[in-house]
Design brief:
The protein is α/β, with parallel strands linked by helices and about 425 residues long. It contains 12 helices and 21 strands.
Length: about 425
C-alpha cells in the first residue's frame, strides 16, 4: 500500500505511526481518522504542479468543511471556495482571509449575498441573470462596489458520474457562453459592480485532461473576446474536478498543472483553481467495527457499525473504496458484502469483495474517505454520525464530536414544552 500517512506496521494499520486500534480505544467507532501529513503533502504536490503559473488555490469547502481540516489548509496558504452562508462562516472561523474567499453556487439567497458583501470576499461567481440582478440591486442599495465573476457553462459532456457532471447546459450550472458575454458587457456599465473575470467548473472526478483542456479553451475564447471588446477581465477561475483513483490512491496533479500551463501560459490572466476532492480524499479513512457476520445461501455479509449516514458515497455514486481489515488475524478469505445497520438495501460500502474473514469486534477500514464523506453525514435512523480525529505531530486531535441523540432529543423536546 502506498498511501502517505497510513501504513501497515507489523500487520496493523497505523496513521502516522499511531496504531488505529489505540486511536479507537480513545474515540469509539465509527470514526474518521485524518492524517495531517497526508493533507499537507497533497497541498504541496498541487502547489508544485502549478508553480510555473501565478495561481491562487481556493480549497472547495464542500468536500470537507471540518474546521480542523480547513484551518490546516489555510495555514498552508489556501483560500476558500464556498457555496453557502454556512461555509462562509466556517471559512472565517478557520481563519481564511476573506480576501481569499470566492462564493459559487446557483442559489445564493439575498441574505447570503449580503453576508458575502459585508465580509468583503474576493468575488461572487454569478450563475444566472436573476442572480446578477439581485446583486446589482443590493450593491446599489448599499452603494458599495461588489466584485463579480461570471461562471460560464461550456456545454460539454464530461466522462464522470452523472450526478457530478456540471459542464453541460442540461444541468443547472453556469451561463451559456453567449449569455455570459452579453451579461459581462452589461456589468461593465454598472457603477457598483467590479468585474473580476470568468469562472468555470465542469464537474468532479475527471481523469481525462483533454476534458479540462477543452473547457479551458472555451473559457479563454470568451475571455479574449471580451477583452477585444474593451472589457476588463483580470482573473480566470478554473474550478476543481481533479479525479482521485480510489483503487490505487493516485491523483494526477502534474497532468492537471501541465494542462493549465498549455492553455494559459503567456495569456496575461491571473488564475485561480478550486480543488476539493483531490486535496482531502486520501487524507481521511473511516474506521468501523464488525458487529456481526451473517450468511445465507447466496451471500456473506459483514455488518459494521458505520452506515450510509456516515458515508453515503458507495450508494449515492456507486463509488468503490478500498476496504481492508485494520489487523488481519486469520488465513481464510471469503467474498463479502460490507453493509451497515440502516434499514435500506442501499446501506452498503462494498459488494462482493474478497477479505480475510473477520471476527466480531474486528476493525474495518474504508480508505480515501476524506472527501464528500463527513460533510454528507446525517442522523438518518437516529444514528449520531461518526466523530472525527486528526493525527498531528504524533498527537490525536479531536476535530469533531457529533451531536448525540440525547442532545437532539433534548433540543427537540424543549421546543414542545412552550
Ligand atoms: N468548484 C465548484 C464550483 C464545485 O461545484 C466543486 C464541486 O462540485 C468544486 C469546485 C470542487 O470539485 P472537486 O472536489 O472535484 O475538486
Amino acid at each position: 500500500m502506498n498511501l502517505n500517512g497510513f501504513q501497515f506496521n507489523k500487520g496493523e494499520l497505523c496513521c502516522e505511526d499511531i496504531a488505529i486500534s489505540s486511536i479507537v480505544n480513545k474515540h469509539k467507532t465509527p470514526l474518521y481518522v485524518y492524517s495531517s501529513k497526508n493533507l499537507i503533502s497533497s497541498y504541496k504536490k498541487l502547489k508544485d504542479a502549478v508553480s510555473n503559473l501565478n495561481i491562487e488555490i481556493l480549497y472547495a469547502l464542500k468536500s470537507n468543511s471540518t474546521i480542523g481540516i480547513v484551518t490546516l489548509l489555510g495555514e498552508q496558504g489556501a483560500g476558500a471556495d464556498i457555496v453557502s452562508g454556512g461555509e462562509l462562516k466556517i471559512a472565517k472561523a478557520s481563519k481564511i482571509p476573506t480576501s481569499k474567499i470566492v462564493f459559487s453556487g446557483v442559489g445564493k439567497t439575498e441574505e447570503e449575498i449580503r453576508q458575502a458583501i459585508d465580509s468583503k470576499i474576493k468575488q461572487i461567481n454569478v450563475e444566472s441573470e436573476s442572480e446578477l440582478e439581485k446583486i446589482i440591486s443590493i450593491a446599489n442599495s448599499l452603494n458599495t462596489k461588489v466584485p463579480v465573476s461570471l461562471r460560464i457553462n461550456p456545454d460539454i459532456e464530461v466522462n464522470t458520474h452523472k450526478k457530478i457532471a456540471t459542464g453541460s447546459n442540461l444541468t443547472k450550472f453556469g451561463l451559456p457562453t453567449d449569455q455570459a458575454i452579453s451579461l459581462y458587457q452589461r456589468i461593465k456599465l454598472e457603477k457598483n459592480i467590479k468585474p473580476m473575470g470568468l469562472a468555470i467548473h465542469i464537474g468532479s472526478q475527471i481523469f481525462n485532461n483533454l476534458e479540462f483542456k477543452s473547457a479551458y479553451e472555451s473559457l479563454l475564447k470568451v475571455a479574449n473576446n471580451l477583452r477585444e471588446q474593451g472589457c476588463d477581465v483580470p482573473n480566470l477561475d478554473l474550478g476543481g474536478g481533479v479525479g482521485v483513483n480510489y483503487d490505487n490512491f493516485e491523483v494526477d496533479f502534474t497532468g492537471f498543472g501541465r494542462t493549465i500551463y498549455e492553455v494559459f501560459n503567456k495569456q496575461g490572466y491571473s488564475l485561480s483553481i478550486e480543488p476539493g476532492r483531490s486535496l482531502v480524499a486520501n487524507s481521511g479513512i473511516l474506521i468501523a467495527k464488525t458487529i456481526y457476520l451473517k450468511r445465507n445461501n447466496k451471500k456473506n455479509f459483514i455488518i459494521i457499525d458505520a452506515a450510509m449516514n456516515d458515508f453515503i458515497r458507495p450508494t449515492l455514486y456507486e463509488a468503490n473504496h478500498k476496504i481492508a481489515l485494520v489487523k488481519n488475524s486469520t488465513n481464510t478469505e471469503e467474498i463479502f458484502d460490507i453493509v451497515g445497520p440502516i434499514c435500506e438495501t442501499g446501506d452498503y460500502f462494498s459488494k462482493d469483495i474478497l477479505l480475510p474473514t473477520p471476527k466480531e469486534d474486528d476493525l474495518i477500514v474504508i480508505f480515501s474517505a476524506g472527501a464528500y464523506g463527513s460533510v454528507m453525514s446525517s442522523n438518518y435512523n437516529s444514528r449520531p454520525p461518526a466523530n472525527e480525529v486528526m493525527i498531528n505531530n504524533q498527537k490525536i486531535q479531536l476535530l469533531k464530536k457529533s451531536q448525540s441523540i440525547d442532545d437532539k432529543i433534548k433540543s427537540e423536546a424543549s421546543l414542545l414544552i412552550c
